[in-house]
Amino acid sequence: MDLGSRPWQVMKDITLPIISPAILSGWLLAFTISLDDVVITSFTTGPGSTTLPILIWSKVKLGGVTRYQRACHDAVMSSALA
Asked: What pTM was computed for the model?
């Protein structure tokens, strides 16, 4: 890029240390909002109805997350690569 540095070296030494607080705070904000979705949904759903946050939460608690884990991984990776 500049002064003989390679692009990956610039990314590792300059860009990532500068944007790491923003990445961390964005991750924490997204985690908090998604956790809030589960809590609000658990209070507002009636008996016998299952929404997506409740379904994912119950699958995570029971340990059967293979299909949902793959779907979440694909969604995160596709949004990260876009």
From this structure: 0.49
